[in-house]
Amino acid sequence: MKLHGYFRDNAVIQADQTCIVKGAGTPEKEVRVKITNAEHSREFIATCDKNGKFAVPCGIWAASFLNHAITVTCEKESITIRNVLFGDVYLGLGQSNMELRLKYLYEYPKTIEEYGKENFRFLDVENTVINYNGKGIFGLRESADDFCAEFCWKHASEISDAESTSGFMYIFCGEMQKKTGRPAAAIHLAVGGSNFADWLPRETIEENPELRRAYADSLPLAQNGQSDAGCIYAEKVAPLKGFAFKGAVWYLGESMAWEGFDHTDTILPAMHALTALYRKELRGGLPMIVMDIGMQSYGNLFVNYANENFGFACREIENLVQCPLFDLSHRWIRPDGNEMYHPIHLVEKTAHAKRAAMLFYENFIAGRVIQCPKITDVKYGNCRAVVSVAHSGKLQTSDGNPIYGFALAGDDEKYVTAQAAFTSDGKIEVFSPWVNKPSRLTYGFFAYNNNCNVTDGKLPLLPYRSIYENADDLPYAVFNPAFFCRYEYLFENSFSAFGGGAGLRSAHTAGKLFGDPAARISYSADGVTLNMQYCPQQACFAGISPEILISGQPHHLERYDELCLELTAEKELELVGIHFRTCEGEQFYLVPHENGKELRNLRLEGGKRTSLFFNLHSAVDRKECTFALSPETRKKIAAMQITFRNRQTENAVTVHAITCYYTAQTDAPATGTDNKDKMFRYGDEK
User: Fold this and answer.
1) How far is CA 13 from the centre of its chain?
2) Interhelix angle for 167-180 vs 350-360, to 10°?
3) 3-class SS at 132?
4) Backbone angles phi, psi at 95, to 5 degrees
5) Whole-angstrom Cα distance, residue 10 to residue 3?
6) Between these two residues, 353 and 304, which has the higher pLDDT value?
7) What ranges in 137-252 are assigned the alpha helix state H?
8) Is the Cβ–Cβ distance between 216 and 229 less than 8 Å?
9) What is the rounded CA–CA span in Å between residue 257 and residue 274?
10) From residue 497, how far is each of 241, 297, 305, 348, 363 by CA, in Å?
């Protein structure tokens, strides 16, 4: 006789739902299940089918911290499992951000101290076979041996076990047990690099034209009759058919950010298919929290579209609630600095998991509808837009500053940073001196979607765009990336996978492109100063990352021919160049020019104010090759960093101004008799 692998010592079974004990014994023979705790005992009887399989309904059990013993008897064989609880069981579904182990989190081991005492339980469903990107996982199918591997339920207080489970689900489960006062358990199913095709049966994908087209590469059968499609579903979900669960957290989408718009467009039909199937096969209704993807080092805008489509799914599918992350920490480097992990893996997950737990508890347990405020309507006129917001609290800003995060455009589709203010009737008025007839609005959407600050006191206002263009036909030809800032704040992203992270920082801050954590920024009426220390282990690099729209006007770098940088170095200093990153992830840098000659690794004389000119028609790529920098590429510039190499024990450089010049462009903006436009000049109020 065998029991389904779920039934092992220390298991947690979903309370308030019929308990069904599964296994395999002697065909067509009686099977008895006895459930005993310190207070009473109950017995249930059924018959094995002709194949020996049995599923014995054992009544509904209330949540309790009483330990139970379950004894199953068929003919002369008996199996007993002990220390079983009835409580709430949550599934952790998704890919690497769900899979990321507790020991890799920034908060470890503090997390163990906070949640280990809760002593909840968890189960990691390990992969039988795994290759890169989650492919090649072909596990247990439906059979008499379903899930009969010796899976092991573990306790949160066992540090060696806890540190190797999902950090997110560990925190989420601990929070749920604290909130409900009921036993909680997490079943971790996630696989890094997986995609929707891995989580849906092959036949489900083939029946849906949109999914079949998107995941055609996953459908062909191999010699063994298997395909990539449905591999994780077969391994980890199908064996749970008929079991009841309190709910689930879906944390998958990073692969969408890598694979492009055609995949983000499939999120909506895929979520419809997945929730319909899982709720049919798993009991309990399976309410679900859907995690946003953290905005970090994807090198493109696909994350915005992925999160947007998850939002569409949550509006269309019952008991599906979106959990945004853009306003929370995106740290991805270990605090000891000895190891660096992939920047899509966010390591400060306590706030993320606590928010997910709060949303699950409020919406699905307490019965209070708590969801993020969202823009429901925008009306244009009188040189401004009036925005209506659905919210459950009082609209305010999260940092006490005036509103930032909005952009406006006219019919030319050139978005510019806009000012905004709350109105007396609970709406938001958005305006910009650069857009006389606004017809388009975004909030926290393009470029970097976490740089916005409207909240209802509990949750952030969700990113929004009023024009839903086809994801394969973005209007880049006329699109100026929208930057979301208010004077001294911006979202600074790393220029490479080794940049050390991203986040809402001071607009003129020490860049993290090459390190130098000792670099500091100071301000004065004359400019912004970068203070550096000599650090051989980190290549002595440091940088200033100014928001190129600091003056509140669009940069329009495609219109200009030259950029002038005015600076003063305290001691001799080497200028590497001005590094740029586009909203599509292209990376390159400019070096000064003099009489048509590139001045690479230019040594700046100490104590001398210097004006350096950069040709905006020519740049250097990451292979150190010069290439023509087209206006189309310059339109998409989203971030910049002035990078220096310091060879002194201590040094400082002050940037006084950045000015751009045009000479040949016939459509250059009219600025009087001068042929230059100010990007920013320090000392300005704006």
Assistant:
1) 31
2) 40
3) helix
4) -130, -140
5) 14
6) 353
7) 159-162, 167-180, 196-199, 202-207, 209-214, 231-232
8) no
9) 19
10) 40, 7, 22, 18, 37
Question: Taking the mean position of all CA atoms in its chain, how far away is CA 122?
Answer: 24
Which DSSP symbol is given to 461? P
- The DSSP 8-state label assigned to residue 619 in this structure reads E
User: How many angstroms from the chain centroid is the CA of residue 150?
Assistant: 34
Helices vs. strands in the chain: H and E counts, helices first: 14, 41
pTM: 0.73
Question: Given a cut of 50, is residue 35 above it in pLDDT?
Answer: yes
Q: Which residue has the higher pLDDT, 184 or 541?
A: 184
Residue pair 567/654 in contact (Cβ under 8 Å)? The answer is yes
Task: Tell me whether strands 12-14 and 77-94 are parallel, antiparallel or unpaired.
Answer: parallel
User: Which amino acid type is present at position 438?
Assistant: P
- The mean pLDDT value for 585-590 works out to 82
Segment 159-185, tens digit of pLDDT = 989 999 999 999 999 999 999 999 999
Cβ neighbours for 427, distance < 8 A, ≥ 6 positions apart: 386, 387, 388, 389
Whole-angstrom Cα distance, residue 592 to residue 590? 7
Length of the chain: 686
Query: Would you place residue 251 in the very low, low, confident or very high pLDDT band (cuts 50, 70, 90)?
Result: very high
Q: Quote the tokens at residue 574.
A: 């080497």
What does the pLDDT read at residue 194? 87
What span, in angstroms and rounded, lies between the C-alpha atoms of 411 and 137? Answer: 50
- 390: helix, strand or coil: strand
Output the CA torsion 597→646→640→678 (10° steps): -70
Q: What's the gap between Cα 625 and its chain centre? A: 34
> 151, 165 in Cβ contact below 8 A?
no
pLDDT of residue 470: 55
Mean pLDDT (whole number) for 467-495: 36
C-alpha of 682 from chain center: 34
